Every structure is written in C-alpha cells, then in structure tokens.
Fold each of these.
Amino acid sequence: MLAGIDYFIVIAYIIGMLLLGLYFKRFVSTSEDYFLAGRSLPFWAIGMSIVVSDIGAIDFVGISGQAYRYGVSVGNFDWIGSVPAMLLAAFIFIPYFWRGGMYTIPEYLGRRYNPTVRTIASVTWILFFALDLGVLFWASAVLLNVLLGWAIWTSIITTATVVGLYTYFGGITAVIMTDVVQMIIMFVGGLALVYLSLDAVGGWDALVYKVTNMGPEYRSHFDIIQPSDSSSPFPWTGILFGLTFVMSNAYMIGNQSIIQRTLTAKNEWHAKASMIFASALKMFIPILVLFPGLIAVAIIPGLEDGDQALPSMIKEILPPGLVGLMFAAFFAALMSSVDSLLNSTATLFTKDIYQPYIKKDANDKHYLMVGRITTLVLLIIGVISSPISAEYPGMYVAIQTFMSYFQGPLFAILLLGIFWKRTTQWGGLSALIFGIGFAIYLNVTKEQHFTIEDPFLYISWWSFVFAFILNVTVSLLTKPHDKERLEGLVFSSKIMTNTDK
Amino acid sequence: MLNFDWLSGISQETAKNIFLGLFVLIGFLVMLIPNDYAYEGVKKSDRHWYNNLKLWSLGSLAILFVIYYIF
C-alpha cells in the first residue's frame, strides 16, 4: 500500500519527533519543569496539545466508522460535547487550579474535600491510564499492521522507544511541543484526504444528494439532532443530558491529562486562552475524522464493517506522498495519546501517592527522579501488558466503559465543590463511592432499564444526578467546613472582580 | 423515565432550537464576565480587543451555532 516516498515521510516523521522531543531535555531541572513545564508555556502550544492528545489513532478509524453508520450526529462529541465545557473550564475552574499552583485535579479534590477523596480519584485515574496504555499500544499496532503491513511489535517498540525517550527526558514540555507538530501533521493529512474525497464525490451538494438517496437508513445521515426514540447511541436527549451536561464537563474539567496542560501556562490569561483556543480548534476535528467516513458512504457503499471506511478511503483517494503523510498522522495521534498518558500518570503517582504516602519531605531532585522512573516503569508495563488485549478483544471498550462509570460522580463532586461552600468532605466522599457504585449497577442492569443500543450517555447523566443528590443530602447532615479552609477553593464573585490590575 | 420517554413528544426541530438557545444563553453568560477578569494576566497597557477572551469565546460559540444551524 505504501510507496517509497511514503516510507520516507513516516520514518522522517518518527526521527524528527525523537530529535525535537529530546531537544527539550535542556529545560528540565526541577520537578515543576518536568510536570508543569516551569509554568512557562504559551496558550497556542497548550491549546494545540489539548486537541491532539484528545484524539488517538484508534479514534481516527473508529469515528470514521461511526460516521459511516450513523452520520454527522457523531460530531456532537467534538462540537456541543466539547465547546461549552471548555468555556466553563476556562472561566471558572482553571483560574482556581492555576492560582492554587496545583499539579493534579485530585489535589484540588483533596484540598476541597479530604485526602481520601484525593486518593480514590487519583488511584482511579492511574488505573485507567495504566490499563489504557497497554490496550492503546496493542490496538494501534494492530491497526498499523493492517494498514501499513508493519509487524505489531515493530510498531509497539518504535512508538515506545521514541515517546519513552522524549517523555522521560523532556517531561511535559517535550510532550506539548511535539504535540504541536503532531497536530499540524494530523490537520494537513486529514484535510488533504477530505479535500480530495469531496472532489472525487463531486462536491458537498452531490455528497448530500447521493447519501440521502441511498435508502431510508441514510436519510438522517446529515441530521445532527437524532430523535429521542432513535435506536442509535446518540438520541438528542442523551446528547443534551448525558454528553453536554455531564460527560463533556467531567472530561474537560476532571481529566488530568487535559487540565495539567493548562497548568503549564505562563500566566492566568494564557491558561484560560489555551482552553478557549483549543475549543475553536476542536470544532475542526470532525472534519478530519468524521467526514471521511461520511464521504465513504457515497464512494464505497455497502461496507460490512464501518471501521473499514477510513482505510479504504486512503487506499482509493490518496496519491503516494499523501498516503505517507496520513500514516504519519496516525503515528502522531498514537504518540500524542501515549505521551499524555505517561506524563499524566507519572504526575498523579508522584504528587498524589508517592509524596503524601511514601516519602513526604524529600528534596525536589528526588521527586523529579520519581517522576522519570514512574514514566519508565509505566512504559515497560504498557509494552509488556499490551498482548493481553489480544486475548480479550473487548478490553478497549471495557476500559472506556469503566471510565464512564466515574464521569458522572466526578463531575457532581467537582461542580458542588466549587460552587457550593456547604458541601462537606463526607458528602463528597459518599457521592464519589456510591455514585460509581450506582453507575456500575445501571450498567450491569442496562437491558432492564434502557431501550437504546449503548446507553452510556444516560448512565452518565443518572449517576451524576444520583451523586449530586447524595452529596447535597449528606452535606446538609454533616458539619460544614470552616470558612478559612475553603479560601481559594470555592467560587466567589470576588475572583471575577478583585483581579490584579 | 430513565430513557427520557417523557420528552418523546418534542420534535427534532424543537430539540434543535433548544440546542441553539443553549448556545445563545452561554454567549449571554460569557458577556456578563467582567472585562478585567477576561484580561487577567495581561498588563493594562497590553489589553486590546484581540486578546479579550470574551470575544474569543463568542467566536467559538458563533461557529458552533452555525454548525448546528446548518445540520
């Protein structure tokens, strides 16, 4: 499938990333440099990094496949499922995290509620990230094996070596600055595919005409709003309540790998601006990953497996050279996901587990070393554990489902924690534990309770409602926190008016 | 109730208007943010319309509004 020029582009990209990442080693001398880039980065780099780390190589294929099956409604996840939450994060949550000099989201939860909430949240994220790493390695390697013909272990070892080296030495600065290049490559490769595909199908109007006339199941392919009784996983009720009100907020505000990037900003304006800039870029992601699937309906109709849409389009449409660029984009998506997981997990472990529980008063060089060793250990675990995915093919979905249990309760305690000073440590703790339990219960009994194909959006919403009510109830029954303890942790109109002039 | 059957009477058109209304509401809330807060971190002498984060946010929301209006 690849010509000589394509191999050249892919290999040049991989070497380029390694050299660029290693260049940033010189800027790391403290743990703050390693985890927060010495709080020195500009908004544009952070914004681009947020966008690219949010999309993996598997998503490229998976989202195109979903667009092939369900149409533009899949775009809800990057549009309404991102932008409002990113604005809320930018104007309300990020200023608190940035001013508080925090490293992790669980650190905020620990200060606002108690250390147990911090530990539960942190351990959950660490488990998720660590499990995800192996699965991500394997699933992406299988994908590259199908597309490029590369041996699975060649892909895994290449990615692990390159990403491992620059993340180990350069920390989050290397992660973010390589993400910038990776985003440009993803956008150029993706846009080239969309432009040439649209040209092949005869333009946008021709595409709409062809697809909507292919049969009744394709008539609503261009409707972003699906009816509430739709059997697809994206009825508008789920999109509004589950995605817009809960999942997107939990993801954009409670996800360590997203928020940690904004905390590397050189000042509060750059921290807020990075998220708003990312929200604008995010709206272009569906063009790159959704449109190829949608256009494939017209060019290659009747595919049994929607996930074949993108690979087939690359084969059909792209000339040599651009195929290489598209594969470099796949690698970019994979590398940006892996480096985010490594650095965020190392931060969570060092700051939320090692520092409070294992060695409290060590010097800064020690924590820098712990961060680096954690990165290395995680990488080795990820590589060694990756073949487990081959034994359990549903593991990727299972891990994502596991994470969706966490989203509703997490957002409930973050929201009440920042907006309601009466929320207590016991309210937060019970909401987190029983909220996760309730989400698991709903998932286990989903066939009795839900009528749609995959009700994860509804489960997020109802577990959020449950955790919210429980948090309020328990908080009202328990002793409120002292005013001094809540200083700088609960929203007050003062933060908006008493700004430094 | 868990399936939102009680909202099944709402048409797709009305649902779309709910989404569009939500974007307008968020835009209105963004406009309520004090300018000093949006500029926090920028020296007073360097504050210009193009680094006003409220305008950036309204720009993002406008693109979002157009996307949902078209589809």
Amino acid sequence: MTNTGMFFRMLFSAVFRRRSRAVMAVVASLVGAATLFCLAMICIAVPQQMNEEMRAYGANLIVTPTESGADGKTGIDSAMVKHTTEMVAAKGSEKHATYRYENVRVNAAPYVMAGIDTAEVRNLNHHWVVDGKWPSAGKVLIGRDVADAMGLEVGGRITIGYRASDNTSTSASDSSANTDASGSTSAPSDSAAGSDQGTSGSASAPSDEGAGSANAETEGETSNNTGSQSSANSSTTGSQSGQQTQDGRVSSDIMDTSGTEFRVSGIVDTGGSEDSIIYATNDDVTKLTGTTRGVDVIEYSAGTEDLNALVKSINSMTSMHVKAQPVTKITSSDTRIITMLQTLFWIVSLVVLVLTLVGVGTTISSIVSQRRNEIGLRKALGASSAAIGIEFYVESAMYGLIGGLLGTTIGFGLAQWLCVAVFDRSIGFNWWLAAGSVILAALVAVIASIPPVHRATRIDPAVVLREE
Amino acid sequence: MDMLLELDHISKIYGDLHAVDDLSLTVPQGEWLAIVGSSGSGKTTLMNMIGCMDTPSKGSVKLEGRKLEDLNAGQLADVRKNLIGLVFQKFYLVPHLTAVENVMVAQYYHSVVDEKQALEALEKVGLKDRAHHLPGQLSGGEQQRVCVARALINEPKLILADEPTGNLDEKNEKIVLDLFRQLHEQGTTIIVVTHDALVASCAEREIMLNHGVLVGEKWNDEKAREAYEAAGGKPASTGAKVESAQTGETAIGFADPTKAAKTANLLSE
C-alpha cells in the first residue's frame, strides 16, 4: 500500500467508521445544499415562468412597415410577415398577430377598424376580456368605448361605412409616421376623422396593449406622436382640400350613414386603446374596403432572451422595409419583477449559505474537538500541522461532497415539486448547476472547517496526551 | 560509549512550581532507564521534554548530539518520528482504525507504509490474528501491545514509555515487559516512566524524582553500570538546593516506592 492509499484508508475510516459523527456533518451539508439548489433551480425557473406569464399580456415586439406605396400605404405583405416571423422564431418561441387598420365611419362618426385573424389575436392577448364572442364573418368585436358611445350590446347591429378619402394620405407624411412610430398609429391618424376625434385617441387607439402604451415609454416617443399628429394635420388639410364642392361649398357627408351592416358578436374591454376600436375579420375588412393590402402592424410575443438583439437584427435588414421596436412596458415590467424576485432569492440564498456555514462549522468544530487526542497522538508520531490540516480539510470536503450530492438530489426533488405545485410546470435537471451545488457544498464544508482545524493543528501533543 | 541523551541542568517551571528542577542526566545508547517517583513528581514532564513534546524552561536537551532547543517545530516533529517510539499508559490508539492501521499510521508519518511489515510487528507482540480488529474490540493488554508495535515499527533508537503497564493486569504487564526486554536486547534504548516497582526493577538503571527534584539513583545491573562508568558516564545530578537531593557525583540509593508485594509475586513465578 502506498502512502496515498493509506491517506484515503484513514479518510474513509474516519468517515465511514465514525458514522454518527459523519452523519451529523453530512446532514448539515445536505440541508444547506438542498435549500440552495432548490432556490437556484427556482431562480432559473421563475424568470422563464414570468416571461411566459408576462407574454400572455400581449406583445413585446412590434413590427411596422417603413415605407408606403404610391397609393398611400401597402402595409407588410404576407410573404414579409412570414419572413419576419421566421426571423423571430429563429431566436425562440413566438406568437404573433397582424392588424390592418382602416378609418371607417359609423353613423358618420369616425372610428378605427382593425382587420385581424381572430385566432392569432386571441392567442396573443389572453388578457382581453371579451363579453360575447370573437369576430367572425359578418360579425364584429367592438371596443367597450365604442359600445358605450353608441349604446350597443352583444347581438346588436352596427352599420360601418368606408370612405377611400378617409384613408388616403400623402405618402411622405404617412411614411414618416410609419417610420417614427409603430405603424399601428399611422393609418388612422392620417385621416380627417382621426383629427376630428382627437389625435391622441386615434393615434393610440389601434395600438394594442403593449404596443401603444409601450411606445409611450420608448425614447423618441414624443417625436413619434408629433410626427403622427403633424402628418394627421397635414393629411387632414390635404383631404379637405381634395374634397369636391357643391354650390360653391365644401360637400359635407356628415349625414351620410350608409355602409355595411355587421352584427356585434362581442365587446372587448381591456382598459386600453383597444376599447375604441372595431375588430373584424380580415376578409370582412377587405370586402368593406374593396382593396387587398398588407398589414400595418405585426405584434409578436417573442420568447428570445435578448429582445434588443432581435430588434437590431430585424432593423439591420433594410431590404425588408420593416421596422421592429421592443414594447418596453412589457419587457421592463417583466425585467423589474424578475429582478425583484431574483434579488429576493439571492438574499435568501445568502442567508441559507451563512446558516450552512455556521451549521457545518459547528459540526466540524465538534468533530475536531472530539478528536483532540487523536490529533495530539498524530503530532506525537511526527505529523506536521500541514499534514493534519490536509487530512481534516479533505475529510470535511468529503462530508460536503456526500452532503452536496444527497442535498442536490433532494433539492431538485423539492424544486420540481414546488414548480409543479405553484407554476404547474416541470423543470429540467441542470447538470451544471448540480455540479456547482456539489462543489459549493464541499467548499463550504472546507471553509467552515478552517477555524476548528486551524486550532487543532496548534494543539500541543504533550498537553493533549496529559489530559484525562 | 556514545550518549544518546544528555540533559544539562534542565528545569521546567510553571509560575512558582518547578515541575522538573535543574536535572542533569546522560543516557547511553542501549540503556534501559526507569524514571520512578510518585504522582506529580515530574516524571511525565521530564519524558515530554525528552520526547520533543515539550521544551525545558532552562537547560539543554541533547538527542544524538543535537540540541533540541535549536530546532523548530517541524524539526522537532522529524526528531520524534525518526528517533523516538512512544508508548502511552492510555494507549492512544485511533479508535476508527484497525490494529494494523494504527501501526501503519506511524509508518505513514515516518516514511512509507508497508502493511506486511506492520503485520510482522503485530506478530511480534502476539496480535497478528487481531490485526484487523478495531481498538474497541481489543482488551487493554492487546491495545497496549498494539501501542508497542506502533512504537517499534519504525525501529526507533529510543523508546519512551509512560506508565506502559499502568492500565494492565499482571499477565499483560508481563507480556509488555517481555517485549521491552526483547527490544533492549536488540540494542534499543528504553526510558520508562513508572511508579511500578516491578517495571522499574526490569530496567538497568533507575532514577527517582520527588517534586521535580532528583532524590536517588540506583543500578539494577552492575555490568551495565561498570560499562557506563568506563565510558565516562556520570551519575545523574541536580542543582536544586533541596534537602535529600542528589546533588553531587555520588548516587543516593532508594527503595522502590510501591507495589513491592506484587513484584515479589511476579519474580517468584
């Protein structure tokens, strides 16, 4: 047998033949490792869960066209929607919905109508409270404000008129609005109707939860709105100047209530700008307007960890003629809550770590003090302080390793149970974290053993061996 | 004759208490010396100083010509593991190591572990069949024999035994003394601290301490005495100004203090 063999023989004898003491040290490490690993696993699981939860509150990324066609606006065609979606999907999970905004009139009053794919919008916006049903062919979903203004209820009828002139704009102003802000704001704000209703209402109305309100927090928002407003004003002027005259007066269509009749399938109440919009299926909007064009906004709920990188990558593709913007309201809320939770977990972890150090330290201290005679004997036999220190540190590390292995396993089980019970989701085993947990447990055991072992190595063999 | 151990006016003082008071002593290679005295006479303190486990407050200790006061802790540990084998009254075996592993611990700190050699050492003390038992599974006598095997495994020049038979019955006491006798015959220097008259009488030479002061010296082996004196060896002495102290160059005889009856019984066997 070599001296190394003897070293490990002594080590294993100390650990496995002194089981009661070893169990105490292992349990102390186990409790610490289990708690820390459980907390760490939850620290990882919570942000993922929070991301998913927050993403249920709407989009965190909006994509708008950067330029308009010769006829005013062409939107983002389906091929580009598909391409953009592929880019987003390449960075992580995604859900998306498209919106085509048109200015319409109801009883001659201006409103914004959005053409949507019902399934997409419903899937993206879980927080929308819909009284009744989502829109289908011949049926519309109206916002709470619209319903209140017109005294409409579910099952009621609404006649919606479309004027091409309401949706015609100078391409320059429209383009600038589209470029500066989320495209969702541009279409209605160009119209005279938008101006009549108030720019703020029409400008923010189409922007869905997150999009509009989030843009309110993005830098340059003021200029965006200003752009929208100015374009709205200019287009108002343009559209007015382009109107026909009758008997020397500007022709007024204020009493024109003609249009297509729709049934109100439901009323949406979000507390946001959606409440002043009328939602219909894309086909109905196409029929109403008589034109087919691309969408004004694509909203994404992107699962990527680095949303800004995704935004940059989309914006760098200038040939796509689209502009991506993060919805800062959602992302910052998400980040803030996650940061708060993680900070809380770290503080708790630190407390647990200190308690583990104290627990393991006390146990090791007790073990060392019980072995004073043995230490004195070893010194009497010629052992150096360093040799004795190494023996005890390795022994402590062994307690930490065993406790760490068991604790990590238990901690994972605990974390798994908690996640299933609280978040209703399972978590995967993180091998790197597990390795870190075991190593940390061993390290804590060694660090905790430094003071008692240091004292032990200074034992005077003559004093110890003289003691009764 | 080479002197293995030379004590030159050593004292160990704790406050006002002189645990060992100005003792001078030389021990040649191969001698069997018994240090006797009642409890608290300073025997163990003296043994600790000889065994490099304690340092004298005054005076000088030389082992193989090396002054121990010049050595640092590491060098003293080297002296302990290379020159000295220790036998304790309370055995001090590592409780979670088997008998053979306890012997191998001494090898581990000395040089290279050799299980076969450790088993041979246990065989010498009659414990080969108990080699893989834990100390808790051994009797007191067996534990002391393991302790002796551990002390002799590195073939030390000096064996220091502190009350080696203090916890043993007569049968085991005899076994241990026989082992010492064998070691002595092989030329190992043995210093035994005891207050047992039988154990002391087995030694060639005895010195007696009383409250740290040398009060007597006697030889149990005249041939050894002659050889010692022929080699220039002098009687132990003390500079302590205490009545009955052995201060000059003439040894003062004494009667073994205790266990006389037991000695008589054993000697008659």
